């Protein structure tokens, strides 16, 4: 099974105003904030503490009255995934279908997101309930590109911003779950 491979790097943001100034200095214009309400699902048999590589995960997202169903399967690491996404009309019915397919709900992730495009990159500045501020930098791999090499390039770009950032290799479901368990 194949599909588009989305590569990302993620950073905890310590000074949001500073990061916004650094981005603006590079001509990056962030979108208006959008509210995203995500329910994450894991495949039956998988549990936190196990590797996510090779395991499919599902998500139901509601944003601006639209519902999106997404399935991701990490390839090289949690931030390098084959991804398929489609709009659905009935979130609750899709939730029941996902559970019938053997997935179970893990964590609800609620965030406010602002985005910007910078060439082939998608920049996402997220305020995540229970977890804080994060910067995600995403790129869809081109033919023949190496995901881990692209992650290194994205990391180099993030560090060039000059803002105080701390890279994390955790996905939002793991970050929110850890915050709620504290």
From TrEMBL:
Gene3D superfamilies: Hypothetical Protein Pfu-838710-001
InterPro entries xref list: Adenylyl_cyclase_CyaB, CYTH-like_dom_sf, CYTH_domain
Annotated CYTH domain residues: 4-178
Xref: PROSITE patterns: CYTH (PS51707)
Pfam entry (one): CYTH
NCBIfam families recorded: cyaB
Protein name (database record): Class IV adenylate cyclase
């Amino acid at each position: 099974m194949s599909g588009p491979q989305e590569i990302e790097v993620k950073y905890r943001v310590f000074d949001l105003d500073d990061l916004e100034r650094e981005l603006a200095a590079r001509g990056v214009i962030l979108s208006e904030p959008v509210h995203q309400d995500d329910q994450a699902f894991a495949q039956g048999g998988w549990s936190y503490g196990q590797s996510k590589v090779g395991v499919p995960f599902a998500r139901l997202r509601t944003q601006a009255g639209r519902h999106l169903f997404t399935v991701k399967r990490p390839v090289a690491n949690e931030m390098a995934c084959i991804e398929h996404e489609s709009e659905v009309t009935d979130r609750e019915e899709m939730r029941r279908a996902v559970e019938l397919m053997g997935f179970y709900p893990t964590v609800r992730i609620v965030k406010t997101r602002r985005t910007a495009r910078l060439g082939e990159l998608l920049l996402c500045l997220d305020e995540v309930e229970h977890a804080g501020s994060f910067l995600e930098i995403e790129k869809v791999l081109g033919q023949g590109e190496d995901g881990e090499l692209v992650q290194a390039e994205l990391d180099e770009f993030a560090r060039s911003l000059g803002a105080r950032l701390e890279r994390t290799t955790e996905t939002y479901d793991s970050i929110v779950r850890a915050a709620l368990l504290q």
